[in-house]
Amino acid sequence: MIGGFYMEKICIVYDSMHNMNTEKLVLSLKENYNDVDIIKVNNFDINAIDNYPKIGLASGIYWGRFSKNIEELLDKILDSDVKNLFFIYTSGIGKVRYEKKLIKRLEEKNKICLGIFSCKGFDKYGPFKLIGGINKGKPNEKDIQNLIKFFENI
């Protein structure tokens, strides 16, 4: 329930592989909205997709894209009857150009993008490992509060 109103059933399917940045974010939503289903991508049953009028996909960004598992699920969702999607991602470099391509894919399939939330995440992949990583402590409490504000408008 948000502001005294009951929300439509919402599911967030996520993949968080390296530093668990994305998992930290989506699980913080569960603390505030216990009626939201938050499911790891490998545990999501595609046959349950029609139970949710709104689906969020959450992932870290790996080489400029969502995880392979989230990309594969997105392809299936784009061919389903689900219309309303939103996205959450973390990235070592922050906002990525991927958003324009993502919105174009949705528009081509007559889907509605309810919003895209992104924030920096701790990254120690590749050369960043040599310096102990970048964005230490990210996502932080401010990022979580920003995600909650974003989610309230979904």
TrEMBL record:
<dbReference type="InterPro" id="IPR052200">
    <property type="entry name" value="Protoporphyrinogen_IX_DH"/>
</dbReference>
<dbReference type="GO" id="GO:0010181">
    <property type="term" value="F:FMN binding"/>
</dbReference>
<dbReference type="InterPro" id="IPR029039">
    <property type="entry name" value="Flavoprotein-like_sf"/>
</dbReference>
<protein>
    <submittedName>
        <fullName>Flavodoxin</fullName>
    </submittedName>
</protein>
<dbReference type="GO" id="GO:0006783">
    <property type="term" value="P:heme biosynthetic process"/>
</dbReference>
<dbReference type="GO" id="GO:0070819">
    <property type="term" value="F:menaquinone-dependent protoporphyrinogen oxidase activity"/>
</dbReference>
